[in-house]
Design a protein that fits this description.
The chain is built from 10 helices and 10 strands. With 274 residues, it is an alpha/beta fold. The chain has 2 domains: 121 residues, Leucine Dehydrogenase, chain A, domain 1 (Rossmann fold, 3-Layer(aba) Sandwich), CATH 3.40.50.10860; 106 residues, Rossmann fold, CATH 3.40.50.720. The protein has a 5-stranded parallel sheet with strand order 5-4-6-7-10. It has a 3-stranded parallel sheet with strand order 2-1-3, with helices on both faces. The protein has a two-stranded antiparallel ribbon with strand order 8-9. Helix 2 packs across helix 10, helix 6 packs across helix 7 and helix 6 packs across helix 10. The structure holds nicotinamide-adenine-dinucleotide.
């Protein structure tokens, strides 16, 4: 997908720019943002990075987002979450122009997704759908079970699967018999943040398993699925690290290009309807 984005930029001569806003010095966030900037450079998307002090005020971040909304060279804006506790990350995210919302996390983007209207989709869920499509996983009428209901991953991936005519079950921390529900899944998606929560015998033989979890442990990064045991029953399974993580970045690049293309074809202010 990265190669495709790069080839498209070269072929069309489109100018795309991604503005990244990182508040504070959380090391994991810094690594994520650095990875996104590097990925942009590799495909020919310009990076406009803003590193802000942890002590910055809500108004100052809001003003920066307002400025980036107005800049013609910025096609996408990414506010790296979480922000320090004295800031309201959700309120700040909502200030991003929906047509530059390459993370797909503003309320407008969420509404467009829910109503299946054109719009920028959250990167991790969009990457999951791309993985499923590129491996010819049939979704029409399939039993899809999503474990986790966050606004970032669980809910949007559930909606995307619903729009593809899967029968979707959303599980969460209060779900009564998680194992039995997972065993029904033709497509099982784990987005929880609990190391190896999903055990091998929760996987229906022949199922497709997508592991979104990124958990730091003594053994390094592990997913939400017990990979070795699940791989014995699954027809297809994504590894951690690998799998969904790199796809998330690939989709960020794709979204940035989509946003840039929409800006060049739609009159400004008319609502580009990407
Ligand atoms: P979150 O903490 O916002 O949500 C977790 C969800 O899991 C909640 O809805 C909760 O109800 C559910 N849950 C918690 N305990 C449970 C249990 N015992 N049984 C069933 N459900 C339970 O997390 P998130 O932002 O959705 O992220 C989930 C995981 O995915 C994390 O490990 C995160 O690091 C990872 N993640 C990876 C990527 C990527 O690019 N690969 C992107 C985003 C998130």
């Amino acid at each position: 997908m990265r190669a495709e984005v790069k080839a498209e930029i070269e072929a069309t001569g489109l100018r795309a720019g991604l503005a990244t806003v990182l508040v504070g010095d959380d090391p994991a966030s810094a690594v994520y943002v650095a990875g996104k900037i590097r990925a942009c450079e590799e495909v020919g998307i310009a990076s406009i990075h803003h590193q802000l002090l942890a002590s910055v005020s809500q108004d100052e971040v809001a003003a920066l987002i307002g400025e980036l909304n107005g800049r013609a060279d910025v096609s996408g804006i990414l506010l790296q979450l979480p922000v320090p506790e004295h800031l309201d990350g959700q309120a700040l995210t909502a200030l991003i122009d929906p047509d530059k919302d390459v993370d797909g996390l503003t309320p407008i983007s969420a509404g467009r997704l829910l109503q299946n209207r054109p719009g920028l989709r959250p990167c991790t869920p969009a990457g999951i759908l791309e993985l499923l499509d590129r491996h010819d996983v049939s979704l029409e009428g399939a039993e899809a079970v999503v474990v986790g209901r966050s606004d970032l991953v669980g809910k949007p991936v559930g909606v995307l699967l619903l729009h593809r005519n899967a029968t979707v079950t959303m599980c969460h921390s209060r779900t009564r018999d998680l194992a039995a529900t997972c065993r029904r899944a033709d497509v099982l998606i784990a987005a929880v943040g609990r190391p190896r929560l999903v055990q091998g015998d929760w996987v229906k033989p022949g199922a497709t398993v997508i592991d979104v979890g990124i958990n730091r442990s003594d053994e390094g990064l592990v997913g939400d699925v017990d990979f070795a045991a699940a791989a014995e029953r699954a027809a297809l399974i994504t590894p951690v690290p690998g799998g969904v993580g790199p796809m998330t970045i690939a989709m960020l690049l794709r979204n940035t290009l989509t946003a840039a293309a929409a800006r060049t074809t739609a009159p400004r202010g008319a609502g580009s309807g990407v």
